[in-house]
Amino acid sequence: MVDRPIVQYLVQEACESGIREVIFVVNGGKDIIKQYFSSYQYSRQKKACRVSPIACENLKELESLLRVIRFRIIKKNMTLGDGHSILCAESYLVREKAFAVTMGDLLGLGPKPFLSQLAEQYALTGAPMVSVERVPKEAVSRFGIIAPAESRAGLHRVLDVVEKPRPEIAPSNLALTGKYILTPAIFPYLKRAYREKTDNEVRLATALKFYAADYPLFAYECEGKIQDTGNKLDLLKATVNFGLTHKNFGAEFKKFLKSLPLEN
């Protein structure tokens, strides 16, 4: 998207948030991510970009990530939902230490990385943190929605999580937006969600619902906007939004958009 793969935006967000180990959970047979974030592939790209100054600049950004981030790839044989993907990574995580989760098609666009904002709130509360964003009431059926309590300055104690509710029964319009700071205490609830699944899908939202019934869970409205890239129209919107903020050609791109003879 724009001048780099979407996955690189996610890794850059993690790096800027102080994270130094990134675990990808992918379907078996998908080796492109492993190839992209490898020193061998980097050496090949370096040779290929000698004729392009722009490509060389992009390669420097990739090189900076390869220097500081340790990458792990976990291949799974089944596609059973985001909760199952997190379960696959359990043995690779440090016991009793918090970890971040970000969904592969949701990018944060704002002045500060969403994961960094969530980590700051986690440090203040000591409780797991999820990102939320206000959506139109008629759109709540597309999202996991929280039931908030004790709300203050964008921080909400979560009483419940309702998956894709009808607008008339939704407890709020605060939607989960795919960024999380969790602790290993979530894994018993993910395993419960696995045991109790009814549609062959293990959802993190279900595990969070179970967790919130027993322990404090908080949601935070991060400064910025979540940009979905999971379908063609949203990907097009994301390309425009990220293009407008690009340090090299954002201003020129904005002039171009303004020059278009758009109909009212």
Order of adjacent strands in the largest pleated sheet: 3-8-5-9-7-6
The tally of beta strands, per DSSP, is 10
Estimate percent helicity.
25-40%
Q: Tell me the radius of gyration.
A: 20 Å
Number of domains: 1
What distance separates the N and C termini?
Answer: 28 Å
What would CATH call the homologous superfamily? Answer: Spore Coat Polysaccharide Biosynthesis Protein SpsA, Chain A
Largest sheet: 6 strands, mixed
Name the helix and strand elements from N-terminus to C-terminus, one letter apiece. Answer: HEHHHEHEEHEEEEHHEEHH
| Estimated share of beta-strand residues | 15-25%
Mean pLDDT: 88
What would you call the shape? globular
Structural class by sheet pairing and helices: alpha+beta
